[in-house]
Amino acid sequence: VGVGDANASPTTALLLSILQESTGRIATIIFAHRLGTSLEPECKMYRLAADIFNDAAMLLDCLSPALPREPRVLLLSSSSMLRALCGVAAGSSKASLSAHFAKWGNLGELNAAGSVVVSYVSSPITTWTCLILLLSIHLAMNRAAVRAVMLRSLNRQRANLVISTYLDRDKVLTPKEVSVQERIFERNGVLRWRSSSPLAAARIGSSLQGLLASLGPARERSQRTGSIRDTEARLTRLIRLYGQEEFLVWYDAPQRLGHIILKEGAAAESQLKAWALVLWIAHRHHAAGADATSAVFESSVELHRRTLQELSLQWSNCTSRLRKAGWDLDNGSLETTSGSRIRLNVNSDF
């Protein structure tokens, strides 16, 4: 605002600069607060998203001269916000990817190589032709580069692919095989059996309050207090069922939502086992057909008990084969938000 405008003033340009800077800073704070935990587990997705944010900001900057003053201010503020999002996503994902590629401790060399050279042209037709062409090439090349990265940590999507293939075909996929199958952009918390349509969703690090709300049907809630009948007895059953585990798992079949409650000190391998358990339970509910949506508590607990028993019998062999295939099971990459932990009193009546 001001270039080519005879009525523009230094004050207007200063206010616009303050607005753009403030918008970018606020967007950075909100983005880092809401999605900061998920940047490392989903570094491939956010690396490509950063390029999309940056290219979209460039397009908005090129479009801004064609608009009147008020829409132009909004467009430039949006451009500043997108660049701020790009900075957060690119910086965090680059750190994770650089650490992945720094096999010989050459992290500084990798970061020094990440430079960008930009040139400009002046003709409008030439500008837009080159811009669209170069941005298309830029996104296509970055998409191909991101898909070629073979990460060895198991985030939610890779855990779905690896665990379901192992349970279904007794085969352990390697990081290279998974990199070919995994999606760059995936819905958060979705449960898939191999590469099928979504079965359900799951929350890891869920709060105990969410579990209690899921244990009792909505029709049993007291209209006056909101309490749930038999919830204490049902929670006791679950605590006993998972007494030897570092987690509690409950799959709400009607809502198609799995709850994973982590106990204090739950290790990364235990989190993976909990995810494998809720994935297998969701698959069995889905395979049972329409009757699964009306499953009563007793039959659902029995399914949880049977699935946990079968998974525990083969879990040691599963983790051993996963490590031999090259997977890093000590790096917890399943939590994408700041989750909660519970502490159980061993002297309780449970």
Unreliable residue stretches: 115-119, 218-228, 290-294
Shape: elongated
Strand percentage, roughly? 5-15%
Number of strands: 5
Succession of helices and strands: HHHHHHHEEHHEEHHE
Architecture overview:
A hairpin with a 4-residue loop joins strand 3 (247-252) and strand 4 (257-263). Helix 2 runs antiparallel to helix 5 (124-148) and helix 6 (156-169) crosses helix 10. The protein has 350 residues and is α/β, with parallel strands linked by helices. The chain contains eleven helices and five strands; from the N terminus they run H-H-H-H-H-H-H-E-E-H-H-E-E-H-H-E. Helices cover 57% and strands 7% of the residues. Strands 1, 2, 3, 4 and 5 form a five-stranded mixed beta sheet that branches.
